[in-house]
Structure prediction request, 786 residues.
Amino acid sequence: MVGESPVGVSRASPVAPIASRGAIGTLWMLFLLLLMNGSAAWTVTLAGWADGLEILPLVALGGLFIGWILAVRRFSGPVALVLNLGYGTVWVGYLSARLIPDPDWSLKLQWLGYRLTVWAIEAMRGGRGSDPLPFVVLMAALIWLAASASAWYSFRTIRSWRALLPAGLIAFINAYYYLGPRPLTLFLIAYLLGALLWLVTVHYEEQSYRWRLERIWFVPDLGVDILRAGLMVATLTVALAWLLPAAGPSETVSRAWSEVSRPLRRSQETFNRLFSSLRSQRPAYISPLSRTLSFGGPRRLSDTPVMDVRAQGPARYWRGVVYDVYTSNGWLSSGEDEQGRAPMTALTARPLWEGRAVVTQTFDVYLPGNTLIFAAQHPVAASLPSIVQGRFTAQAHDLMMIRSTRPFGAQQTYEVISLVPVPDIESLRQAGTVYPEWVQRYLQLPSNLDPRIRRLAERITAGYDNPYDKVVALEAWLRRNIRYNENIPAPPPGRDGVVYVLFDIRQGYCDYYASAMAVMARALGIPARVVSGYAQGEWMPDGRYRVRQRDAHTWVEVYFPGFGWVEFEPTAAQPPILRPQRPLSPTPTPPTPDQAGSTPGAPRPTPTRRSLLAEDFDIQPGEPLALPRASRFPTGPITVGLIGVLGLLGLAFWIRDRRRLRRLSPAAWDYLWMNRAARLFGIRFPSSWTPLERADYLGGLIPEVAEALERVAERYSAARFGGRRSRALPPPQGWLLRLLVQGFQWRLRQALAPYLGGIRRWAQGARLGFSLGFPRSGRDHRREAP
Prediction:
């Protein structure tokens, strides 16, 4: 309760809010800073990236103490900065040296300096850092700077972002990349509560300072009420953010995040190189796919499940990365264009290709830390916020990779819609060789390619006059003449991988089969590319495919005009691809509901998806696909328990408020509710108004209760400033109810006044027009014209 009063206000000049905290205010602020910075330190410590991170909480405590001491002393900013860096170096160095197992402190410090120097030299040379100690020292330095900065900007000068942001960035970035079992979310919640209470505390300090400066009286324990309300609001905010379903990001947000996070993704390689000894907090096996596909030696893959897939239609492979540039050492995925996509929006412009079937797939991926989204050929939409990567021009959208915006957890479920090719043999033979201009880069080959490869390809395809028969001949020759073997040695340094498998050892696995076929097809002028992902997997009785590590696979896609990319299987260990000789019925792209059932192996997706993709032939990148989505609001005992706890907390605060109101005198109780009612009506009194001025203003707006309001103000003024012997009359019974009823009626009239005024003016104009004999409208005027 705030009001102006000459009574009880000190004549001394008010002091700045930071200096007027007192002992309790200082301890409260230090507690909030310790909560935030300690949470950040503990998130990194519990993540367990390296041994020795247990020193971080002590670093945070030391940085907070030194920052507070420097802030309350008379040091200037530059001097305080130098002292802070000096104290930090000593404290971080002392705690880091304790991690070195040597009883002699001089040797500890020498070893510390030596290991940091060796790591720095190796980093500048472009080598890999294998010592975890530099990472511990780096994190300790960051924690020290964050803690000391938060104390400085809380006690010397108030800067909200500089006080809160450093610790928050450390906590949230660490939690983002941590995929282990420890509950770091609790520390994030603690940080958020601390940050929100810090903001409430600083805001109250600034307001109370302004009230003292303007000589405005306020309740002495108002700060406790504000902190209590702030704690409740902060708890509700965090709880609602935790419970409410996640909103699907828009295309604009996804695109913006793609641009912002691109430097971070590119810097990950440098970070991994500098700190290669860190624990990944991931299982031993992660997806082997990346932007490069190198010719390697023996590969060892187990039967561990990688994902389960349910597909509504024909799908043979689960693609991950498309490779387009061939070098003698392997393949590269050269697509540098990146664009963000919201869930269930078009990943690329939809091509008007023939012989395609709409296939819906549901993936349960067991690759924690993976961001690669797998899908059947030519995915058109995914249910996760994603980043598409490839080459995107006005002529074509060449999709090469899809990544999730966030690493997967222990089990990630998502859905993808694809247009899988189901062409027949005769149609592919008649496709021709008129390739679009953007396809020409899929004929790229090294300038020093061994000429024996081209001669072998020409000899195998002699007698065939169309690209399809030539590609099938290459496929069959590789399956017959190259023996499948996963234990081959890697090619010798400088040896072309395709030459190695075709002319040296005549054996290999899928990477070598697919590379040999794609290179020979390109040598014949046929656009081809290599794709890596997983084979179909094992069919399970419940209708899903169980994909294991050993199903990692590489295959070939060849471009046919009018049909797009078509899959081929040259690996001898995989079953061949069977296609119909002739189309049993015309197969548009995508199939209409009447035609989908007549194509062998045609998918049977839900009617909504089939209708959507069948009726719209002009889907553009980022266009939303309005598919029905199930609600993701969490249900269960945890949600019910949290809602119950919040309800009990609100009830406890309400009961406490009622008990405090009972201690008020009748005059103060009436005056309090008069002000609350005014706020309900949208009326905000200036803080300098007296009780009589407030009652007079409110009574002028609501004259029906003006007399009762005047009595309320007189009674409160007499009790507050006239002592206990005041004989002011109490307001009549039921005055508050009449105030609420009449006040809401007044508020409703105010809201409807603009509309009622317009109707009234229209009615007056209409009556005036009739009285003068004018027609009512232009239409009547035209009708009556001769």
